Amino acid sequence: TRVDKAGHKHFMAKEIAEQPTVIGEAVRHYLTQDGTGVKLPGADLDFTKVDRLTMVACGTAFYACLTAKYWFEQLAGIPVEVDIASEFRYREPPISKGTVALFVSQSGETADTLAALRYCEGKADKILSVVNVAESSIARESDIALPILAGTEIGVASTKAFTCQLTVLLMLALKAAQDRGAIKATKCTDLLSKLRALPSVLNETLDCESQLEDTARKLAEAKDILFLGRGLMYPLALEGALKLKEISYIHAEAYASGELKHGPIALIDKHVPVVVLAPKDALFEKSISNMQEVMARNGKVLLITDKPGAKEGGDGVWQTVVLPEIDPVLSPILYAIPAQLLAYHTAVAKGTDVDQPRNLAKSVTVE
Ligand code: G6P
């Protein structure tokens, strides 16, 4: 089927705008009829006997795995190891009994990820994949392939596939938590109903676009941009920096906020914008104190937060973007949107080829 831009200037813009819809579809696909549990249509999987989860991927899919590590560990109590496919495959790590190997890939054809999967064959108890292309090699060679249902993604910089990966991985972590009795039924039902409500919150989030467009015009003049986040916002900071450098060609780096003092703080001056991703969650005070260290060195802070966060931490900040309030567990899916929009509008302001950035390919099927 031919996909067009549906009135958008770029496929990337269209794919960003589609997120409320496709995420809604993914949630419906994995939700049980009564809304209190997670089902894996056509697959039989029980996490009770899983001792360890090994997740492997490349690029944006790798950052989805890093995010999911927090979910599987905190919600389900399963130890998780996450690795980049090109490292994993040559390191040849020992795979202990009771290990489930999980591969995340939009295309399902990434050469390194496929090689890592093949390495795990006969070693891991089960091979799972989270893919967008159901007929792909990675899907076919897995014991269980879970579709993310994002629909065709054309922009080289992944957007809707990333948030659909996050959605499916969160639901899988909730299933694991239920299987293992690691989560209270009420808590699980609550998170699932919040997932169901996510599309409308995401629509509301997309309203921050015009503000980000203004900010992006200013960011387009920067040479280096730093992204900071803690906890679930750390992998998202990595994804935000990746998105930005992929399409705007501005050097961007991400650090866990607590690492600021171990190096990157040396780079801060008035020419370096610092994007701080910090909803008012349990780690908020810590993030704000890191942000103040940046401001004390004249760094220009762009704070992406919610209303309570803006009230408490917004003083003296260069720019504040206020997002709807959301359960901290679901925050990566929501905060992905401003990260994507920031990269998109910075690239548009610079006039780069947003959908086909130089030197990059949508799917990397060779090493
Ligand atoms: C390429 C794409 C990225 C993608 C990565 C992994 O580098 O440009 O957007 O995240 O490959 O691709 P996969 O299809 O395995 O998710």
From TrEMBL:
Keyword annotations: Aminotransferase, Cytoplasm, Glutamine amidotransferase, Repeat, Transferase
EC class (word): transferase
Transmembrane domains' residue ranges: none
Sample GO molecular function, one term: glutamine-fructose-6-phosphate transaminase (isomerizing) activity
EC numbers for this chain: 2.6.1.16
Catalytic activity: D-fructose 6-phosphate + L-glutamine = D-glucosamine 6-phosphate + L-glutamate
GO CC annotation: cytosol
Domain SIS: 43-182, 215-357
GO biological process, one term: UDP-N-acetylglucosamine metabolic process
Superkingdom of origin organism: Bacteria
Active site: 362
Localization: Cytoplasm
Subunit-level organization: Homodimer.
Entry function: Catalyzes the first step in hexosamine metabolism, converting fructose-6P into glucosamine-6P using glutamine as a nitrogen source.
The name this protein goes by in its record: Glutamine--fructose-6-phosphate aminotransferase [isomerizing]
